[in-house]
C-alpha cells in the first residue's frame, strides 16, 4: 500500500473491468502468449479513428481484448467536471494529483469532448471534459494483473512482452479488481525497506483501507518485494495489503511505462 509507501501525505499516494480503452487493434488475453488479432500493431491510431463511448463487461471475463494503443489526455488546466457533454456535474477535475500532472486514459469521445477515467475515489470514477482543454498523446502499453494466477503481464501493442509472479492483496485486504491506470512514477521512500528502484502509483484504491498510516488514502502501488523475494517466489502469492509486489528485476521491466497506461486487474 502506498501509505506503506510512507506516512506523509506526499508519500500517501499509493471496480469491474474498465470502460472501453481507445484502440486501433486488439489482442485477446488468455495468457502471456496473446498476440494482436489484427496480425500486428497499427501505426495509424488517431483521434479521428476513435470509437464512441462503449464499455467492457461488468466483471472480469475469462478472456478480454487488450488495446494496442490507448489515447491519453493531459489536462492543461483544472476543469469543471461534466457528467456528459454539456451537462455539468459536481466538483472539478484537477490538473495535478499529489503534485504530478494528470494524464488520463480516454474512454470515449463526442464532438468537442473526451471522456476520461479519474484517479480519485471512488474506483471507476469518470468525467467528460472539453477536448480543447487537454493535450492528446497515446501509449502502446497495458499492464494486466491476474489475481487468480498471481501474475503481472506487460503488453506492448497488444502483444505480451513479459510476465512475472506477483505478490497481491490478501483476502482480508484484497487488491481491487477493475480497470485503472498508472497515475505516475515516484522514487522509493527513504529509508527504502525493499520498495525497489521506483513505485508505480495507480488510480486504484483499497476497498478495505481508507486511511493508511495517517495518509488520508490507501492507493494501490506497484513496487518491489518489501522484504524476502521468497515470499513472492516463482508463482506469486497473496501477501500484501492490496499493493502489487514484484521482484526488482521484474519491476525494472516497467520503467518505460508512462503515466496514463491502462492497468487491468482481473479476479
Question: Concise description?
Answer:
The chain has 267 residues and is mostly beta strands. It has one helix and 21 strands. The chain folds into two domains: 10-15 and 141-266, L,D-transpeptidase catalytic domain-like; 26-139, SH3 type barrels.
Give a verbal description of the structure:
By secondary structure, the protein is an all-beta fold. The protein is built from 1 helix and 21 strands. 49% of the residues are buried. The model is unreliable at 3-26 and 33-62 (pLDDT under 50). The radius of gyration is 17 Å and the shape is globular. It folds into 2 domains: 10-15 and 141-266, L,D-transpeptidase catalytic domain-like (Beta Barrel), CATH 2.40.440; 26-139, Roll (SH3 type barrels), CATH 2.30.30.40. The strands form 6 sheets. The protein has an 8-stranded mixed beta sheet with strand order 14-13-12-21-16-17-18-20. Strands 10-9-8-3-11 form a 5-stranded antiparallel beta sheet, with no helix packed on it. The chain has a two-stranded antiparallel ribbon with strand order 1-2.
Amino acid at each position: 500500500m502506498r501509505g506503506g509507501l510512507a506516512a506523509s501525505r506526499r508519500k500517501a499516494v499509493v471496480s469491474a473491468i474498465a470502460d472501453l480503452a481507445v484502440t486501433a487493434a486488439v489482442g485477446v488475453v488468455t495468457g502471456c502468449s496473446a498476440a494482436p488479432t489484427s496480425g500486428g500493431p497499427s501505426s495509424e491510431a488517431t483521434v479521428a479513428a476513435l470509437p464512441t463511448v462503449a464499455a467492457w463487461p461488468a466483471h472480469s471475463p475469462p478472456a478480454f481484448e487488450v488495446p494496442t494503443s490507448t489515447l491519453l489526455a493531459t489536462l492543461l488546466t483544472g476543469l469543471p467536471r461534466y457528467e456528459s457533454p454539456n451537462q455539468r456535474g459536481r466538483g472539478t477535475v484537477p490538473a495535478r494529483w499529489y503534485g504530478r500532472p494528470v494524464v488520463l486514459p480516454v474512454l470515449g469521445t463526442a464532438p468537442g469532448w473526451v471522456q476520461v477515467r479519474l484517479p480519485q475515489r471512488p474506483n471507476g470514477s469518470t468525467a467528460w471534459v472539453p477536448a480543447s482543454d487537454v493535450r492528446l498523446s497515446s501509449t502502446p502499453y497495458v499492464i494486466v494483473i491476474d489475481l487468480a494466477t498471481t501474475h503481472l503481464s506487460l503488453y506492448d501493442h497488444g502483444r505480451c512482452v513479459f510476465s512475472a509472479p506477483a505478490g497481491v492483496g490478501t483476502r482480508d485486504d484484497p487488491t481491487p479488481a477493475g480497470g485503472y491506470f498508472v497515475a505516475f512514477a515516484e522514487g522509493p521512500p527513504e529509508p527504502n525497506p525493499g520498495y525497489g528502484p521506483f513505485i508505480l502509483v495507480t488510480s486504484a484504491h483499497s476497498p478495505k483501507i481508507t486511511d493508511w498510516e495517517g495518509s488520508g488514502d490507501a492507493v494501490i502501488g506497484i513496487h518491489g518485494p518489501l522484504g524476502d523475494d521468497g515470499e513472492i517466489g516463482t508463482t506469486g502469492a497473496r501477501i500484501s495489503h492490496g499493493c502489487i509486489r514484484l521482484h526488482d528485476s521484474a519491476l525494472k521491466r516497467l520503467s518505460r511505462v508512462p503515466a496514463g497506461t491502462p492497468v487491468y486487474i482481473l479476479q
